[in-house]
Amino acid sequence: MNPQKPILLHGFDRSGHSHRAELMLRLLDLPFEFHQVDLVGGEQRGEAFLKLNPFGTVPVIEDEGVVVADSCAILVYLATKYDPQGRWLPRDPVGAAQVQRWLSVAQGPVFNGPCCARLVTVFGMEFDHSRAKAVAERLFATLDGVLANRTFLVNEQPTIADVALYSYIAHAPEGGVALDLHKHLVAWLRRVEALPGFKPMPATKAGLLAA
Ligand SMILES: N[C@@H](CCC(=O)N[C@@H](CS)C(=O)NCC(=O)O)C(=O)O
């Protein structure tokens, strides 16, 4: 089942949170339109945007009169509505809990680690860069161990857990965090990139890529 009208994605092209939503739309081969929210100009704090998301953050989607804000909520919505077989979000208690476990990691250590490190180097934001890099290093070592003997984070098949973690980990070098030492993690990134419909987030010349 496809939407009657293209889904509208309010996002920002260099936001990993926004890329999660965009990637899911592409992996599900859903029609969508992209509205670039002017985060630098403060559009996200304007009245019109705050009606969509009172927290003033991207991404937000509008689909047939339904508004969903928050990257992980969007992944859950899209998978539940447009993948009735539950490949991307298992419906059984164990599978659903295993996916949620990784969505929590996406909003915790992925935000505090690779995302914050990149916010410092790419956008000049005032987070503690050393702390963010240390969180990212610990996270990557843990994930490398987890991925040493599985193909994707939950199953042999990809789920929204992989989509939620991919974007900021793939772009960690922009935040000054190297990936090379974590070979299982890198192999998983390549497997996500090989999925039909995959399109990367644009790279920025920052962090380890700046030289
Ligand atoms: N928990 C939210 C966080 C989203 C978020 O932090 N978005 C950032 C861009 S990466 C944003 O919109 N920032 C605008 C601002 O803080 O003014 C999600 O997962 O969607």
Care to describe what's here?
The protein has 211 residues and is an alpha+beta fold. It has two domains: 7-82, 3-Layer(aba) Sandwich (Glutaredoxin), CATH 3.40.30; 93-209, Glutathione S-transferase Yfyf (Class Pi), Chain A, domain 2 (Up-down Bundle), CATH 1.20.1050.10. 47% of the residues lie in helices and 9% in strands. The protein contains eight helices and four strands, in the order βαβαββαααααα. The protein has helices at residues 16-27, 47-52, 71-82, 93-107, 109-123, 129-146, 160-170, 183-193, and strands at residues 7-11, 32-36, 60-63, 66-69. Helix 6 packs across helix 8 (183-193). The protein is globular and about 45 Å long. The N and C termini lie far apart (47 Å). The site of glutathione (GSH) has 13 residues, from helix 3.
Quick structural overview:
The chain has helices at 16-27, 47-52, 71-82, 93-107, 109-123, 129-146, 160-170, 183-193; strands at residues 7-11, 32-36, 60-63, 66-69. The protein has 211 residues and is of the alpha+beta class. The chain folds into two domains: 7-82, Glutaredoxin; 93-209, Glutathione S-transferase Yfyf (Class Pi), Chain A, domain 2 (Up-down Bundle).
